[in-house]
Amino acid sequence: MKNNHLLIQFIKNTYPISDYAAALIADNFERITYTKHTLMLKEGKINSDYLYLESGYMRSYVLDTEGNEVTTNIFKPNQMVFEVASYFQRKPSKENIETITECTAWGGKYESFQKLFHSLPEFREFGRAVLVKGFISFKERTISMITEKAEQRYEKLLSESPDILQYVPLKYIASYLGITDSSLSRLRKDFLRK
Which residues neighbour 25 within 8 Å (Cβ) at sequence distance 6 or greater? Predict the structure, then answer.
């Protein structure tokens, strides 16, 4: 079996399973490196890769009705990266996923994971835990976009993921927060004054 300590630890932290089962799951992933600005998933293509991001930063985005990029998620180390609807429903993605920095990831193919899903109950539980965590995060973000002011969303991002500000261009962060670049600049200045 391959030995990727970080991936195995992520699996065990996501769902408590034996070392053997975690290593068996991890053995279905291959190490991949990506250069900066690699388009990993293009709108209209089917997402066949289930990635664990070991290092680096990625984002997902869509194009609005005027052709502007809108960042829908920012991925950082120790997270799973995939477009859920396309991956599970085997339909063309409406999102794009690209690397923001150089990245190291561990990727698994849809076909391998289908076999694991049917043969290893621990993998089903791990997968379910990843989906539940992702759904909760999505729900909280959706509600915050409606119920919180930009300042609150920015402050939350600062407290939960201060590293993002070091590695992710401000235009992507502004888009993710649902504000303009100039509004983000103003917010940053206000927070620096405090």
Answer: 11, 116, 120, 122, 123, 126
Residue 101's alpha-carbon distances to 9, 40, 55, in angstroms, are: 23, 13, 9
Give the C-alpha distances (Å, rounded to integers) separating 18 from 6, 9, 13, 72: 15, 11, 11, 34
pTM listed for this prediction: 0.91
Q: Over the stretch 19-37, which tens digit does the pLDDT of each residue have?
A: 999 999 999 999 999 999 9
- pLDDT tens column, 88-129: 999 999 999 999 999 999 999 999 999 998 999 999 999 999
**Distance separating alpha carbons of residues 12 and 6, to the nearest angstrom:** 10
- As a whole number of angstroms, the distance between CA 65 and CA 183 comes to 22
Domain 5-120, CATH among 2.60.40.10, 2.60.120.10, 3.65.10.10, 3.90.1300.10: 2.60.120.10
